[in-house]
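A student in our group prepared the protein record below, which I am reviewing. What it holds is a sequence and that sequence's fold in token form. My question to you is simply how this chain folds and whether the tokens agree. Do not assume that whoever made the record got everything right. I have pasted the whole thing underneath without changing anything:
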Amino acid sequence: VAAAGAALAEPAVLGHTLDLLLRQDPAGARWIAWCAAVIAAEVLLDAATARLTGGVDARSTAWLRRLGLGRLLCTAPHRAARHSPGEVSARLTAQATTAGAVPAAVVTASVALLAPLGGLVALVLVDVWTALAFLAGLPLLAVLLRAFARDSGASVSRYQEVQLDLAGRLVEALGGARTIAAAGTAAREQARVLARLPELGAEGRRTWRIYGATVARTGALMPLLLYVVLGVGGVRLAEGALGVGGLLAAVRYAGLAAGVGTVTGRLAAVVRGRAAARRTAALFDLPELPQGERRLPGSGPGTLELCGVRVVRAGTVLLHDVDLRIPGGATAVVVGRSGSGKTTLAAVAGRLTACDAGRVVLDGVPLDELSAEELRREVGHAFERPAL
């Protein structure tokens, strides 16, 4: 805001200084110093704005990543499995970075409008006719920006959707690389992973075409408006209704008002960030696995009991009324065919996931009543392949 204020003060100070110098007024020397001070303040404030923007982007991105990762760690594995590892990686890296830039981008875009709007008001105060000449082109600019926000938003959303799907397929292929090599299906797997690559390229090109076309149109419109303002200002100068300093101020304020066209780039960042935020926010909806606050008895032997445990996933019953008691200190092996529920049984026994019916008890305390710290201190897991 301070930088915008300095930018608005600059044309008025320059114009007044020029009038004083043309009249050979002794106060002109003092106003030259004011000009230097205003210009220096504008440069320093712009640098401070860039520094603050980078800091806000970094903190917002870190917050999104911590929140998303925390949700993954607190939910049951079968719920986290809704998102493939590739999707999770993309959401917490590139898309979290893009989404983290939204707060600063919104503020920057809003503040960026202050200078053009202030310049327009100042232009009206300097000379109404030059302001009317400039206002004649604003409806067309508004139409261009509105069309850009609508078209680019849809294209960016589709691009990010395809990007997530590609990332998921790639991570799946990397996880099964040995199986793919042994089966000799590398070419087929490559085709599967890259099947949507042409669609990704098409959406990317479409997004940049929309952006480029909007920038080109606004870039052509703004100089045209400045020439119109300069022409009208010249006529007003010839009529004696406007001084040389006033003409300079009018042209500079018209230049500031024309800066509304530069909001296109900031608007594009907001559009991309909002689409990425919607993708990243999918992780925030993962339900937490309920935990209690109880602790285990200090002298407990470590006896584990499953009482009437039932687990249903995606409509399929994986465990049905399982009753099991493993004394403390015992070693137990669960053997069964693939898909018989061995992994699910181990996950329920260690409270990695919750059962739909029945209960799991450790030394007389139900696992869902234990605090997360107590549970992880007393129950350990050795995974064939680590999982969140």
